[in-house]
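User: Predict the complex.
Assistant: Input components as received:
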Amino acid sequence: MSDIAASPPVFGQLVGQQHAVDVLTRAASAAADIVERTGPGTSMTHAWLFVGPPGSGRSTAARAFAQALQCPHGGCGTCTACHTVKVGTHADVHVVTPEGLSISVREMREIVRVSAFQPSGGRWQIVIIEDADRLTEGASNALLKAIEEPSPHTVFLLCAPTTHPDDVSVTVRSRCRVVSLRTPPVDAVAQVLRSRDGIDAEMALWAARAAQGHIGRAKRLATDEVARSRRQTVLSLPLRLTSMAGCLQAAEQLVESAEAEAKAISESLDEPEREALSQSLGAGGTGKGAGTAGRGMAGQLKELERRQKTRATRVQRDALDRALVDLTGFYRDVLLIQVGSQVELSHADHREQASEVAELVSQDWILRALDAIVATRQTLEENVKPRVALAALMTSLRLPAR
Ligand SMILES: [Zn+2]
């Protein structure tokens, strides 16, 4: 059984990740042996950590693995188990997606408690933690305890970016089997956009390249006019950074655009959530217990508002980060042009602008610019005010006078 030739269909979602697919295929097969008691019964690894750069598909990999573990056919992709895991309604798969900036101790304790139950479907209890790097120390400790003494049928699937390996506590990390994902090659991303999303070949290739291997971003660029125009704006900035005023203006523009994006997304989510909560708490109810519900409601609404506020912060920060990723691609293009490399540019449609910058700056200048962008992305993660961080960055990207 453990020597199966083909990987399960659900792993087709893992783009350009053959190594991870091999590891997970073997593990899923061994897990099936345990459940069905047909094989040698080797023990199951109860904690997995999926690491990889943004866009490499960490949570997709975790979900696909959960599908393979819960599916009676080992991950067919079509049965009820596969489907419910995919849409997030499987009774024995708990997904933790922190909408705020961290996962609280209370939330983690609750998850750990539930994860120890017998799985209702008789296979595994699976907990997916999408941003394990955002665990507070307390939450991390609560999780560690569960990982160190796991119930025989519980599996934890943690996801975290590779860029900050220290963010997942060393102890948690040491208890996990690590699955490393890589940035998928442009061709593989384009292929997915064509076959999965029905995007035409030319657009798929352009978007895959512009997104620098980030699958979700590539799909967005291929399908969303607003996303394309935001990218356009960002890539027009470097040439405008010729004066102090120009730099500050560019910073302000980036922040305002991120704020607008966050506002649009928040508005579309906040009100329906508030509505749904009111309904579920029986707002306006007159029956027995309506009074109690009313008192609890104020607290729950407050809690919801707090979550919505942190989510808005997160969304805004993500929007800024995307802009910085676009800029990274641009300055990398500048470097490629300057050294005369034949490698495909990330933003081939901005070759002219990149060439213009390449004539103005030295190689050292470009490397410093790239470093400054990386540093700013980290600063933003650490809660520094976006306006302050961006003003400093844009100033450091100011072009030398001709
Ligand atoms: Zn299935």
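Strands lie at 47-52, 93-96, 125-129, 154-161, 177-180.
Let me know if you want any component modeled separately.
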